[in-house]
Amino acid sequence: MGRPFDLEAEVRDLAARRDIHDALCRYMRGQDRLLPELHRSAFHDDAYVDCGLMRGTADEFVAFAQGFLADLISSQHIIGQTHIAVDGDRASGEVYFFAFHRVIENGEMRDLLIAGRYIDEYACRDGDWRILKRYEVVDWARNDPATDGFLAANPQVPVGQRGAADFSVTRAWPV
Fold it and tell me: What pLDDT does 12 receive?
């Protein structure tokens, strides 16, 4: 027969996975909306990040990423399948991601697409799950000419903005 069911342990595990997923979402949203405080809130103070282009503390990484992304026209990072293994107040994870970046190269708008994985270690401190270590692995990338004539042909379609101007922040509902 299987192991006995421990409801309390099951609830702790599910709550940990929920809270880790919330940290992952804050990370992605903070990047795309250029909200550095939100981006930074995904990490513990002593976190370490290695994304290949830079290695360092959470503060160094957030400053680097916010600066890098601010130079782009737009970006969107999407979380794919996620595997999280919780062990008490520690957890490890592998998070698939897909990232879109609208860039300008030699005066031409281009779409830089990157897919990869975050290999993470998480810790719960004072009931707060955050990233403790992050290593970014790129599985593939493409750099193609931009092809979004749909937006030019449909100017009434709302387009995402950076920072406080985005609808997700303003919630300026039409009357």
Answer: 95
